[in-house]
Amino acid sequence: MMNTAAINEYIGLNPQVRFGKPIVKGTRTTVAEVLEMLANGMSAADIAEDFPSIGPEQVRACLLYAAYKESVVLLAVA
Predict the structure, then answer these.
(1) CA–CA separation, 71 vs 78, rounded Å?
(2) Do 59 and 34 touch, CB atoms closer than 8 A?
(3) How far apart are CA 75 and CA 78, in angstroms?
(4) What is the pTM assigned to this prediction?
(5) Do the beta carbons of residue 21 and residue 32 sit within 8 Å?
(6) Residue 74's pLDDT is what?
(7) Where are the alpha helices (DSSP H) in the chain?
(8) Cα separations in angstroms, 20 against 17, 40, 63
(9) For the chain (length 78 residues), average pLDDT per consecutive 10?
(10) Dihedral in degrees, nearest 10, Cα atoms 62, 65, 71, 77
């Protein structure tokens, strides 16, 4: 089940920041950058060590955001 509250709490869209790409609120780090770090083998703890403002909750919200966007695309195609 998708927890969209977590997405809204930690992920933001601002046309003035990073060309409007979804970012982790309070940072300039995009969701895509967090996902790329995870795909390259970093753990949430590794990310938090390199980016102290991005904790496990923010990483989870990035994953939820990606899953939500994928499910919306799949529903739109169906």
Answers:
(1) 10
(2) yes
(3) 5
(4) 0.86
(5) yes
(6) 60
(7) 4-10, 31-39, 44-50, 56-77
(8) 6, 24, 18
(9) 81 94 96 98 97 96 92 63
(10) -110
Query: What is the Cα Rg of the chain in Å?
Result: 13
Give the whole-angstrom CA distance, residue 25 versus residue 30.
9
Residue 1: both structure tokens together: 């089940």
Q: Which two tokens stand for residue 21?
A: 């790409």
Would you state the pLDDT for residue 71? 79
- Both tokens assigned to 4: 């969209």
Q: What pLDDT score was predicted for residue 75?
A: 61
Instruction: Please state the length of the chain.
Output: 78
